[in-house]
Amino acid sequence: MQGNIAETSKGRQKKSDSAVKTINLALQGGGSHGSFTWGVLDRLLEEDRLAIEGITATSAGAMNAAVYAYGFAIGGREGARTKLAEFWKRVSDAAAKGPLQPSWWDKKTKNWALENSPAFMMMDIVSRLMSPYEFNPTNANPLRDLLLQSVDFEVLRNTDSPLKLYLSATNVRTGKVKVFDKKEMTVDAVLASACLPFMFHAVEIDGEAYWDGGYMGNPALFPLIYHCDSPDVAIVHINPLERPELPKTARDILNRINEISFNSSLMREMRAISFVTSLIDSGKLDGAGMKNVYVHSISGEAELLKVGATSKLNADWEFLTHLFQAGRSYADTWLETNWEHLNVRSSVDIHDQYL
Asked: What is the DSSP pairing of strand 232-237 with strand 294-299?
């Protein structure tokens, strides 16, 4: 099945406007919702007219980015597509053997949540009363083995692939963002970027402890601005900026708090980008040594608002492939609608969407 997924819509590249355009990608975190990003990446990899210079990512986005970069290094576009499909199938296969399964009611309602799963209810209670150092003293993390099966990190670090890679984590001691580049890429760097402190021990690297990068950069955009030539940044949103309904249950309130906090660093960077851009455009700031940043958005918000918040922990293959296909569809629409804007201007109103 994963082979079929990797070949979906192969050869659908649009033939008009054949000039190659180079952009950067910013991939958000969001647990199993990262399979939406997998679909986006799969569609973008089909597009021969599109080149990716750099990727910045956090949490589930970091896993997608590391697998993408490794697959691309060893096998180009098709290598990246294949490795991403293999990775997500491994995630689902591993989850199928674990206790976190959607209940019959969750499956019937198709909101893909785990709220009625006995194992989730128990985990939810335990994680509120005990730290992972108490309920998981051995620090068991199945993601480590899945990543090591999917990425040869030594090859990734030493490849001469031109793709630039930046993963964000949060330094527990200083509260500052730590950005790992490709030369620093290890399985621990990826796990640090995805370390939820209520579920896993802090990841220690070179004497420093790290938590999920979403607290300080979901994802951090400045590495792309400082180190990449392309002015275009396409953000793959899987962490909703807005929710139309007021959360009233304890679980929904906590989820909304997490969404707001995980988006806060991105909003701050957008304010800075908007401010500098306005100064350049108005002539109040000398453009020498500065560059405009063109912002684009591939958002799964409309799709992900339909599913329950706890679906971030649901790795059922039917659910993952549902989001994969949604990601492909949204990316296809985005390419069709915004191709003419790439390398020319932002395709979103930064002030309206982020400020």
From this structure: parallel
